[in-house]
Amino acid sequence: MKSNRLATSGVLLALGLSFGASASAQTGLTASPNPLGMSAPGGGYTTGFITVTNHGPGFASNLVVTPPTNSGPSHGGLTIIADTCTGATLAQNGTCTVRFSYEPACFVRAGSQDQWYVPISSVQFPVMNEHVVGTTTTNGCL
Length: 142
Known about the structure:
- By secondary structure, the chain is mainly β.
- The protein is built from one helix and eight strands.
- The protein has one helix at about 1-20, and strands at about 30, 35-40, 45-55, 65, 75-85, 95-105, 115-120, 130-135.
- Strands 1-3-6-5 form a four-stranded antiparallel β-sheet, with no helix packed on it. The chain has a four-stranded mixed β-sheet with strand order 2-8-7-4, with no helix packed on it.
- A hairpin with a 6-residue loop joins strand 7 and strand 8.
């Protein structure tokens, strides 16, 4: 009888691992894409957006997207131009979006990159940092 119980518990354990909750299930907030890559000619601009998802458990309330306050190392600027996240409450699996505008500086070397880490927070989860990379495509100015 003992070996039958052991065999049965082994089968149940295998079924539990196959059908049970995954040990790597996501929780908290995520952003996609992360990193967000944008490129534009010197003095021009481009826009890009991210989607923030609440993987739970539960609600994510009082969301805050903190806008970058300084220019990147190549002196390009990043601005939030639309934000449905700040002040929102997301149910589990709920989403919101943030749209950014990137404007590279004039007369920097083509291929120069600016980088920011934009904090996104809620009351319930740790701060998540969205990595934004802006690349200058030409060294002139529009």
